Amino acid sequence: MYASPEQIQSDKLDCRTDIYSLGMVLYECFCGEKAFPQKALPELIDRKMTGRFIDIRQLVHGIPEEFAQIIDSSTMLQRDRRFPDEKALIAALDAVIARHSSLSSAQIVENYITRQEAVEIAAASDAVKKPSGSRFLFLYLLAACAIIIAMAGIVWFTDRSNTAKRAKTADGPHYDQPVRRTATPAVSQAPDPVAPAARQQPRSGARPVRTDLLQEGMRAFSAGDYALAAGCLEQADTTVLDQRMRRIVRLRLIESYLGSGGTGKAGALAAAGPLDDGYFHLLKGRMHLESGRLDMAEESLVAAQTTRSVMGPVTRRDAVFYWARTIYERYRRKPNSENKTRAFTAWTNFQQAFCGVSADERQCAEAAERIAALSR
Questions:
Q1: Is residue 2 within 8 Å of 24, Cβ to Cβ?
Q2: What percent of the chain has pLDDT over 70?
Q3: Residue 352 within any structural domain of the chain
Q4: pLDDT computed for residue 373 by the predictor
Q5: Distance CA 202, CA 205 (A)
Q6: Domain contains 222
Q7: Reduced to 3 states, what is the DSSP secondary structure of residue 312?
Q8: Are 153 and 86 in contact (CB under 8 A)?
Q9: Are 310 and 247 in contact (CB under 8 A)?
Q10: Which phi-psi region, left, alpha or beta, contains residue 166 (left: φ > 0; alpha: ψ -120 to 50)?
Q11: Cα–Cα distance, 371 to 243 (Å, whole number)
Q12: At how many degrees (to 10) do helices 278-290 and 263-272 cross?
C-alpha cells in the first residue's frame, strides 16, 4: 500500500522511493484513508502502477493548497517529478509550518498530543468542548507535517549512515575489528532466494504457516520472480481463502509456471479445472501461442476479450496484446497481403486503445515497432 511503483517493478531504488512512501503516509494522516485501500493484490498493483487514487482535495474539503501540493509532489508516478530527496521534502514542510505557526515541529506535536488527550477526556465526561472543525483540522495538518518531518529526518539519517558504511566497506575488510555475524534482513524489493521449504521449517511439533507461503508467493510474483512464486504458491494452503481469492491464486500459479518456463505444468493445471474467467482464457491463449497452435490461441484470446475476470481491466488489454502477437505470428509464417493487413490492423487497434496515459510501455513499444515494420 505504501510501496512505490518502481519498487513493485523491482527497479533500482533511490531516496525518491522513500519520498513516495512518506507521501502516502502523509496522505493517510490528512484524510484518515489509504490512497490504495484495495485488498485484492491484482487490482492494487494495477491502480498503483497507473497512479489512480482519489485526489486529497476531494476527501479533505478546505485543505490548504500548499499542503495538497506537497502530497502531489511526493506521490508522483514518475519519480523524476517527486522531491529529489528527503531534505527537499523537509524544507517544504518546514516552510509550510513556518508560515502558519511560530512553534517548532516538536512543540506542535506536543501540543497536538496534549489537545488530543483533552478531547478524549471530554468525550468521556462531556465537561470540555471539542475544538471546532476548521481549527482542529488545521492543528491536525500541522501536527501531521511535523511528524512527517521527523520521519523524513530518520530516513535521511539512515540513508546517510548506510552510504558511509558502504564507502568504508569499499576500502576492504578491517582486520583490526572483530567480525560480527548477523542475520541479513530481507529486502522488500528482492525476494529471498532461499528455498521455500527451508524458510518454512516448523519447530518441533509445530504446524507450518501456509499463509506465509501464500503471501511470499504473491510478493515474488509481483517482483517478477516467477520460479519462486510458483514454488510458494503450489505449496500454499488456499482452503482458508474465499472462492474469488482461490481463483486469483490459481491464475497466478498458472502464470508463474508460464513465466518460469513450465508450460507443461501450466497446461496441466489449466486442464485440471477450466475457469470461466477472462484471465484464464488469456493464459490459455498464451500457452497455445507459445506451443505454436495459432488457431486455438486466437480462439482463447478472443474469449478473453469478452469474458469478465477477477483481474479487472488489465485482462482485456493483455488479451488484445497477445491476440495481436498471434495475428502477427500468422503473418510471419505466411507473409501474404491478407495476413499483413490483419496484423497491421491488430497492432493499430491495440495502440489506439491502450497506449495512452496508463499504458504498458513495453507492450506499446512492441506495438510501435510492429506497426513501423508492417508499414514498409
A1: yes
A2: 69
A3: no
A4: 93
A5: 8
A6: no
A7: coil
A8: yes
A9: yes
A10: alpha
A11: 41
A12: 140
In Å, what is the CA distance from 148 to each residue of 19, 56, 106, 153? 10, 17, 11, 8
- pLDDT tens for 74-129 read 898 888 889 888 888 888 877 777 776 666 666 666 665 555 544 443 444 343 33
Q: What share of the chain is helix, strand, coil (3-state, %, to 5)?
A: 65, 0, 35
* In-domain check, residue 178: no
Residues 289 and 295: their CA atoms lie apart, in Å, by 9
3-class secondary structure for 86-131?
HHHHHHHHHHHHHHHCCCCHHHHHHHHHHHHHHHHHHHHHCCCCCC
Task: Count the Cβ atoms, other than its own, within 10 Å of residue 32.
Answer: 10
**Which residue has better confidence, 173 or 62?**
62
Rg (CA), the chain: 26
Asked if residue 363 lies in contact with residue 349, where contact means CB atoms within 8 angstroms, the answer is no
Sign of CA dihedral 330, 332, 335, 338: positive
Q: Does residue 374 lie within any of the structural domains?
A: no
Grid cell for residue 7: 519498487
The CATH number given to whatever domain includes residue 132 is 1.10.510
CA distance 94 to 128: 32
Q: Provide CB contacts within 8 A for 278, sequence distance 6+.
A: 303, 304, 305, 306, 307, 308, 309, 311, 315, 316, 319
| Count of the separate structural domains present in the chain | 1
* Residue 118, domain extent: 5-166
301 contacts 290 by C-beta, under 8 angstroms: no
What's 240's DSSP letter?
T
